[in-house]
Design a protein that fits this description.
This protein is α/β, with parallel strands linked by helices and 288 residues long. 24% of the residues lie in helices and 29% in strands. Strands 1, 2, 3, 4, 5, 6, 7, 9, 11, 12, 13 and 14 form a twelve-stranded mixed β-sheet that branches. The chain has a two-stranded parallel ribbon with strand order 8-10.
């Protein structure tokens, strides 16, 4: 009678053989459902499984996937070995690594891209993204935080984008406000737009237009003062506007453009003296 350890090894091998006998599409579905971290771990099951995960249709790389995002070298290895589509990548990166993956992702059919740069110190200049971020034409979700927007390359656009979130993003171009306007205009299917604490290199009177006929949700929270003109927001359902230190000179126009929203939240931040610090005055939420 074989020893217990040998019996366990034979049982594991038999189970592995049964799995390998399943149709390819079933195996791919299993590996896709267990998550990337566990899919890679199947490489130790047997020699036949060593590279099996590399042939699934698509993968997701997420900060929630077993802390893998904390080891950028692991993601390097995955992108090097996996030739297929990276459907979703949500990570927080050191500013030295922020552009290492963008050229590869732009060729992998990424649909959801969320990049947040980790702040190493209180005051630092957000790193400039690689222009290949504009070549991710299959994106449906783009969430960028604490970074600098690159110049436009040739032949770019986001025809499938439905959600655009820009937080603490800097625009260094002289006409950065028009750059933001162009980004929004290239998203005909855009439904969710959130602009939070944007910084522009240019000074003086600035105006840009938000024209998004399919927009359902809008959040505006600016640092720099400029004029925001809203056009064709007939499908707007909810809007939130957070004004820092000032009320826009065109506040009445802005409010009139949001009148069709079913849920409207207005919030004003003001500063009183040295001791009081920031005082937040929250206006009532209006619902219809």
């Amino acid at each position: 009678m074989p020893p217990p350890r040998r019996r366990k090894t034979e049982a594991a091998a038999a189970a592995t053989d049964v799995l390998l006998s399943l149709p390819t599409e079933v195996l791919d579905d299993i590996l896709a459902r267990v998550g990337l971290r566990d899919a890679v771990r199947t490489s130790v099951l047997s020699r036949a499984w060593t590279r099996r995960w590399e042939f699934i249709a698509s993968i997701d790389i997420s900060a929630d996937d077993g802390g893998m995002w904390k080891a950028p070298s692991a993601v390097d290895g995955i992108l090097l070995r996996f030739p297929g589509r990276v459907r979703r990548i949500h990570v927080s990166l050191d500013q030295r690594r922020v552009n290492d993956w963008l050229p590869t992702l732009s060729r992998r059919g990424v649909e959801s891209l969320s990049l947040k740069v980790q702040r190493q110190e209180r005051y630092f200049r957000p790193p400039r993204l690689h222009e290949s971020v504009f070549y991710c034409s299959g994106l449906t979700v783009l969430n960028l935080s604490t970074c600098t927007m690159p110049s436009f390359p040739l032949d770019w656009g986001f025809p499938n984008l439905r959600s655009l979130i820009l937080s603490r993003v800097m625009f260094l171009e002289e006409d950065g406000h028009y750059q933001l306007q162009d980004i929004i205009e290239t998203c005909p299917l855009l439904e969710d737009l959130r602009l939070v604490e944007l910084y522009f290199e240019a000074y003086g009177d600035m105006e840009f237009v938000i024209q998004a006929p399919n927009l359902r949700c809008l959040t505006l929270c600016f640092i720099d003062e400029f004029k925001c003109v809203l056009h064709e927001l007939s499908r707007l359902h909810s809007a939130a506007s957070d004004m820092w230190n000032y009320v826009h000179s065109n506040f009445a126009e802005l409010l009139a453009a949001l009148v069709q929203a079913r849920n409207l939240q207005l919030r004003l931040c003001t500063e009183y003296g040295w001791e009081d610090g920031w005082v937040h005055a929250h206006f009532v939420i209006l619902s219809r």
